Amino acid sequence: MKMKYLIENIRYLYLLLGIAVVIFLIQCGLNAFTIEMPDSGNANEVAVFKLHGSTESVIDNSAPDPTYSTRLLVGIMVPKSWNARQNAVLSFKSGKGDEANMVLIPDSEVEPASGLNWSNAAKRRFGIGPNLFDDFEWLVYRSNNVYVFRNDDDINIDVTISCKLGPENMIAKLGFFLGSSKENLRPEDTDYTKFAFSDQFEVKNGTGEVIDFVNPQLSKIEPVKSLDNDIVTFTFDSGVTHTALSNTDDLYLCAKAYGENNTVISEVCEQTARTRLSALGGKRYRLDLWPKGFFDVPSDVIISRIEYHYTDVTGNIKVGFANTADPFKFTFICR
Length: 335
Hints:
Helix content: 10-25%
CATH topology of the largest domain: Immunoglobulin-like
Number of strands: 24
Structural class: mainly beta
């Protein structure tokens, strides 16, 4: 009985050693890549993102087939509102060849390691990174050609991603990966798949209030689509992260109203009953107001937007956008 058990274990050990030898003899891995990109772009305009990577090919020339054949995979994670399926173009240059237009893998095709389509498989594998909530999609592209690697075929790969940005103002961190079609998206793989998330990227000059995927949402104005003649609600949530105002419940609104020509037409920054927020519990606060009346603006004058922050009773401590002294911003939009 012991002898049979020993033989079975030896066979298993040989099998593991055999697998290890094959992996060692034929390995064409990817090195970590860098991301080259702007820190912002204009809504509805094309932005360009670049990935700079390389391969490391270790293949024993005495192996039965001393080559490694694969297609390049490139994945991008962007906000759904960008409609990247229609608006993104991926190309690359490499030591093995150049391609002007990679192919988007359709949702009808299953990624073998997960049994999901490639988009969902990438989201399961990589997630949404440092973003705080999910309104993203992963899209996976594949090279048109198969590339053959031999020992020491160490090449550089430069991927260019051109994508028309969506219409909404937002701040997000984008996701990218480089991979090998031969290896698919095996979760344990770190040699053939490299991924990273970008620094903060902002879409400017678009519609609506800034959608901030990165920073805790300290404040908002509702309704999101409102006019300067509507009753609006300011809310401040000091519970999502520690702020300079976390140790007090005595909070006040400090705000500027801008006209259609982008000039300040009124400012209210006082610590009085009309600017004081009501506590809702759980470090959440609110203030309901009518912008026309609050800013004492004539009926024929239009308030186009508001910039604001919150203060303590002294007015010296201020909290604004992204937990800084910069103001929150809100633009009035017709329904």
